[in-house]
What we know:
Layout lengths: L31 E10 L3 H9 L1 H7 L2 E5 L6 E6 L2 E11 L3 E10 L2 E14 L2 E10 L7 H21 L1
Antiparallel strand pairs: 1-7, 2-3, 3-4, 4-5, 5-6, 6-7
Helix pairs in contact: 1-2, 1-3
Amino acid sequence: MSFAVDPVVPEPEVPPSGKPAIAAKPAIPHAAVLGDAKITIDAPVFEVFAALTDQERLAAWWGEDAYVEADEGGRYETTLSLGRLEGTIIAIDGPGTLDFTWDLPAEGIPVTTTVHYALSPIGPQTAVHVAHRAPREVPGNWTALWHDVLESLKAYVEGATTG
Length: 163
């Protein structure tokens, strides 16, 4: 007569803390910073945020044919001198944060980039910081582009609030 013997299953190792060890997640590669620019605007933060999220205001200072669905998952589009920006809002927390995607062609392959606007009130003024990131480098002078974008935003908002 033979008996089946259950194979011995080793107990998992338990560290001295008494909690099972958790495998570390692999590190996510750092995204390339394509552009980074800052400016202070002489206007309240809600006015600056409206210029970024209201399609009529956006069209008045940045691009033509603007279309904005100011909600997470909403569209963020305008036509610029370098082509059509067609993005999706991935974070919006007014009047302090706006993040959207922007697909850029790079060597014939589209690269999904992200644009992050952070607005902070400084008394009656607003500090604006924009950062443009990608999973890899994309040719272009992006910091100069974003500096020009912020200068246009400043001119528009300051003109609209004093006029």
